[in-house]
Amino acid sequence: MELKTSSVAERLGVSPKTIQRWAKKYNVPCRKNEFGHYVFDAEAIALLEQIKFEQSATVEPYTRREQKEKPQDTFSADALFQTYVEPQLEQFTSRLQQIEHKLDQKADEVVSVQLLQHRQELEELASYLRALEQRIDHLEEKMNKSQQASTEEKGKQKPKRRGLRHIMGLFV
């Protein structure tokens, strides 16, 4: 004989939650079905009866029928809303608007900081480019001067006198 938690609870006269608590607390040997619900065999039920006796649980008997027969509250949802929610609603809206305003300010501050950082990075890159341009200009000037010097040296060299050697080479 295997019973579920609610059946065992009715049999022992306690709530299903109490059965679940006892099963966990006292490591009652039971298994769980595919839905994760406890399933108790005869041995586990006997152990739970002993636990109840030892606990001297004086909880009123629990049945599902008693729970269903409880009188319904006569308050409607509108009445509950007007009583509990509506007085707090304006305060909540005000608080929400303040939080949104602070969030917008924080976002603006973050964007401003990022823009300043980007501007600084751009200025650093621009100064680096200017330094590179100056260095390139300086190197071009050096190169032009060295080319001019080499062309002037070529122009200043004496022309070789090949005629005399050439003639002498004929006689040797």
From TrEMBL:
<keyword id="KW-0749">Sporulation</keyword>
<dbReference type="Pfam" id="PF13411">
    <property type="entry name" value="MerR_1"/>
</dbReference>
<dbReference type="GO" id="GO:0007059">
    <property type="term" value="P:chromosome segregation"/>
</dbReference>
<dbReference type="GO" id="GO:0005737">
    <property type="term" value="C:cytoplasm"/>
</dbReference>
<protein>
    <recommendedName>
        <fullName>Chromosome-anchoring protein RacA</fullName>
    </recommendedName>
</protein>
<keyword id="KW-0963">Cytoplasm</keyword>
<keyword id="KW-0131">Cell cycle</keyword>
<dbReference type="InterPro" id="IPR009061">
    <property type="entry name" value="DNA-bd_dom_put_sf"/>
</dbReference>
<keyword id="KW-0132">Cell division</keyword>
<dbReference type="GO" id="GO:0030435">
    <property type="term" value="P:sporulation resulting in formation of a cellular spore"/>
</dbReference>
<keyword id="KW-0238">DNA-binding</keyword>
<comment type="function">
    <text>Required for the formation of axial filaments and for anchoring the origin regions at the cell poles in sporulating cells, thus ensuring proper chromosome segregation in the prespore. Binds in a dispersed manner throughout the chromosome but preferentially to sites clustered in the origin portion of the chromosome, causing condensation of the chromosome and its remodeling into an elongated, anchored structure.</text>
</comment>
<feature type="region of interest" description="Disordered">
    <location>
        <begin position="139"/>
        <end position="162"/>
    </location>
</feature>
<dbReference type="InterPro" id="IPR023522">
    <property type="entry name" value="Chrosome_anchoring_RacA"/>
</dbReference>
<feature type="DNA-binding region" description="H-T-H motif">
    <location>
        <begin position="5"/>
        <end position="25"/>
    </location>
</feature>
<dbReference type="GO" id="GO:0003690">
    <property type="term" value="F:double-stranded DNA binding"/>
</dbReference>
<comment type="similarity">
    <text>Belongs to the RacA family.</text>
</comment>
<dbReference type="GO" id="GO:0008356">
    <property type="term" value="P:asymmetric cell division"/>
</dbReference>
<dbReference type="GO" id="GO:0006355">
    <property type="term" value="P:regulation of DNA-templated transcription"/>
</dbReference>
<dbReference type="InterPro" id="IPR000551">
    <property type="entry name" value="MerR-type_HTH_dom"/>
</dbReference>
<dbReference type="GO" id="GO:0030261">
    <property type="term" value="P:chromosome condensation"/>
</dbReference>
<keyword id="KW-0175">Coiled coil</keyword>
<keyword id="KW-0159">Chromosome partition</keyword>
<feature type="domain" description="HTH merR-type">
    <location>
        <begin position="5"/>
        <end position="52"/>
    </location>
</feature>
